[in-house]
Amino acid sequence: MRLRTLIDNISYVELVNIDGFVTEIEGISYNSKKTKPDDVFICLTGEHVDGHEYAEEAVANGACLCIVERRLNLDVPQIVVYDTTEVMAQISDLFYGSPSKKLNLIGVTGTNGKTTVTHLIQKIFEANDKKCALIGTLGNKMSSDDSYHDAKHTTPQAPELQELFSDIYEKNIPNVVMEVSSHALAQHRVDYCEFNCAVLTNLTQDHLDYHITMHNYFRAKAKLFEDIYADDYAIINADDEYASDFMEVVSPDVNMFTYGIKRPGDVSAKNITFGNEGVSFLCDVQGKEYNVNLKMNGIFSVYNVLAALTVALAYKLDMETSIKTLEQMQGVAGRFEIVTTKPTVIVDYAHTPDGLENVLKTAREITPESGRLICIFGCGGDRDTTKRPKMGAIAEELADKVIVTSDNPRSEDPHQIITDILAGFKSVSNVIVEPDRELAIKEAYKIAQVNDVVLVAGKGHEDYQILATETIHFDDREKVREIFAGE
Questions:
Q1: Torsion angle in degrees (nearest 10) through CA of 242, 248, 249, 250
Q2: What's the CATH architecture for 337-484?
Q3: ω into 159 cis (within 30 of 0)
Q4: Per CATH, is 99-327 categorized as 3.40.1190.10?
Q5: Which residues, including other chains, have CB under 8 Å from residue 19's CB and lie 6 or more apart?
């Protein structure tokens, strides 16, 4: 990209040393250690790190231009802007030629269910002979048969995201479904992405360490729906507490569809039946009814499937084909994943009060009358502390036995996190406290009988644990197989 193109398309405060130094930019960098010759280095100002302090290292590694929020004492051209985070999104879009405008881009946001819903949508599109790429928590993949390519964030940073869009377009894949996190929206990672469809799963308490209030959390999510253009699609969970708030921010010339169970919608479910093999229900699609028999279980699976089928309705995809495809799916890694049987051990990503409540209720549905429901969970460190006692109260109410352990303690004392969780219990008589997560799973193995159901919640697909001084390999599924099945 030519320097003059960049200057002509962004708002800036000041140009420093511009003339005669650089005309062509070869790449975009915000990590000084990964900066390459002729990259533009963008100095991001984050919660803990100030990129301006690493600009000198970036220049030493070959940066030919710096985008800054304050003038630096460097002998390279600098463009001073008000907000480098916002400008990075704009530059990334410019550099890669606005690839999202050439794609049908579907964004899925919400507290819970994003990962599963994106996978369901990808499968539906492919079943209807439409290629579809996926971007999300587990990584990105060009098709459902592709392996995951690693992702550091649920939604990548703007340069990686725009490069990925460009790669998808070059591979002649016209559709993309992606998870859009509240952090990505608040941090401008998806600015200049042209979404054709926005999907809301739900909005419940999470990330208040970052957003502070539920209103701020809502406002971040609402940005996705505010930016949908005329004749595109907004898909909203009518049962969600914030449904009407999201509907209000959608432009009147956008095609809005709703789904639900408690409230009527374009797509709805009734006669829901849970069984050991999965959940069945009658699906009403604008007055036409279909029997749905899923291999997935839980009320959250019904909502996830309704969301995906509402997207199919919006895009006029064949409903019978779409339903048949979803009926064949086993679920997504780390999402109510049954890892062993006799006893049944389930690993799930639930890390919010609402998420934990939903999976415990589903686990109860498949717990035999002669069995107990045992719950192992913890809460992440350096995150919202107010949800900890709430999750403790939910676990006490819905499980027969609770083992409180560590999740990703990060820089916090694991014992303090556990103390916060225990504050939500009325009694600790049915609680085992074991800060070591592996030992906690071993405790469950010691007490579990053949008819019991054990839920290991909080980390799901994650294969690591973040401690104060290091990140170690830790996969709940691996540990469960090793301890319960001797694998």
A1: 110
A2: Alpha-Beta Complex (3.90)
A3: no
A4: yes
A5: none
